[in-house]
Amino acid sequence: MTHIGSYEQRLKNFNWGIAEKELEYQPGNVINIGWYCSDRICQMGKGNKPALIWEGMGGKGKTFTYNDVRLNSNTIGHFLRGLGIQPEDRVCLFMDKIPELYLGFLGVLKIGAIAQPLFSAFGDESLFVRLENAQTRAIITQKKHAPKVRKIIDKMPFLEFIIIVDHDPAKPLGLREISFDLGNTPKVDVFEIHPTTAESPSVLHYTSGTTGQPKGVKHVHYSLISQYLTSKWVLDLQDDDIYWCTADPGWVTGTSYGIIGAFSNGVTQCVLDSGFSADAWYRFIEKNRITMWYSAPTAIRSLMKAGEEIVKKYDLSCLRHLASVGEPLNSEAVIWSEKVFGIPFYDTYWQTETGSIMISNYPGMKVKPGSMGKPFPGIEATVVHPETYEPFAEPGKVGLIAIKPGWPAMMRTYWSNEEAFKSKFKNGWYLPGDRSSIDGEGYFWFVGRDDDVINTGGHLVSPFEVESALLEHPAVAESAVVAKPDFVNMEVVKAFVALKPGFTPSQELDLEIMNFVRKKLSPLAMPQEIEFVDSLPKTRSGKIMRRILKAKEWGEEIGDTSTLEDD
Amino acid sequence: MEEMKEIVRDYVIQEYVEDDTEVNFDTPLISGGIVDSFSMVSLKRFLENKYKISIPDDKATPEAFDSVHKIVDLVNDFLK
């Protein structure tokens, strides 16, 4: 029996009070995600139940019960409080998928501070702009990532504490660095959790837009209500499930559904902290008898690429329910998963700003391969005209996805950028920036982004950020960055580069520029292809026309070129 | 062969290792998280430039790039 039961019935009877009641939350009371994800589960008598089954590089592993999660998150919270970290201070978590990331996230929330998880592959420039914007007071990291912080420490007087969780005592600590070895720190059993309320800020995730610097998406503790219920109804998390969310908590899926969703439901979840390989992933599923698997189209297509023979080497009969997020799941991937696993991947649609799943396919509901599904009960979503922002009356029209604001996990603002936040709303609708249509049965069909943001492997990359980084390379005069189609990642970054006088295109320069961007921003932002050009198409006012370059990459019509500057 | 191993290992250390992590010829690079799938593209480009070869995408798999030894074997396949 699935948790959601009949989707149609749920639509009729829905209100968010269902989740509030199950979580025994009364409006106006204290609500702290850290407590709900550990202490509450222990109070329900599940303290000895495995909460986190972790496997790292080289197969080393560790299992934490819910009581272990409670004690360890208390201990981290106690340590941070001892440093003087105050409620609403920003604490960055800059780690690989090691246990300290998951436990630290909850520890930060328990003291009322704001957790700012950042993808550990970010380069120093990406790290700096996000820490500076948030005026982050402390960062928890590993010795392998500390050099990136050291490179920019002089520019960050606000960053008082650099906490290294695996410091080698034989080596000296750098400026403002502190060693914190969780394994060898006495555990704190009795801990006063900060009495956060519904609108207390909880998490700050950064997301990229077409223009400007990345924006900090501010969420609050009340987001738990949506994250708990969508985990239960969409991912269908059952008490005896072994759940694996493959997302990195540096991105929103990794926190909303890789920490909060599973733990608040008291479910056992697995984490694999190693690089991707089909063998490693299938072995991990088989070994841990994973029943519910939440992954991404890029990973699914990488598995498709590895072939069907490899699947036969493993017993994957444990898998009960599969779901996907991050980018549109193509119908071929749905059909492939039905063929090789015997069950389809259920696509889910949402984004950093929405905090929880908005549109989805549900267990028990007919899946139309390639469709995003239907809005979650309580979510009013439609497709609006791109100029009038009025919903289309008839099905099949392509327009902008629009969602009526007001669900619990909706972002509250962009950090220090209220203007950008307000610009996301038109005619009473929140616009995620994606285009789609709705068919006659109410299923949404994704068409594409409504801007130039590149969705690579389910992660958004700002062309502006990459172009800015390229301009810092001594050989680059100007550049334009667009999405290029890619089988595995859906899109990858392609850069058109005009060189300064004195520089000539070469294979060596091409590689040098790629690595320059990779180290400065991240591997995701590294152009997978660089095309050297003499000049870039511009409007008469001098603005680079990315859409012309993108249309060429995608084999599409170039469209109106009347504003193009003359050669 | 030995020289190629040294060159590839030194390049991996120079480009992908931020701290003092040791990399030997058998250290897992992709499954060990030293080189991610996006960065693999730049490593492939380096090998193609350095050894004047072209590695088809279907041969540039995470498994084939998972250690210096495996990379050298792959490069040698295309040098023949």
At the fold tier of CATH, the topology name of the largest domain in chain A is Rossmann fold
What structural class do the secondary elements of chain B suggest?
A: mainly alpha
* Major sheet of chain B: none
Q: Give the tally of β-strands of chain A.
A: 28
Treating each run of at least 4 consecutive H or I residues as one helix, how many helices of chain A? 17
Quaternary organization? heterodimer
Q: Give me the strand/helix succession of chain B.
A: HHH
CATH fold description of chain B: Non-ribosomal Peptide Synthetase Peptidyl Carrier Protein, Chain A
Rounded to an integer, what's the Rg of chain A over CA atoms? 23 Å
Structural class of chain A: alpha/beta
First-to-last CA distance of chain A: 66 Å
The pair of chains with the biggest contact is: A-B, 33 and 27 residues
Question: Strand-residue fraction of chain A?
Answer: 15-25%
| Count of folded domains of chain A | 2
Helix tally of chain B? 3
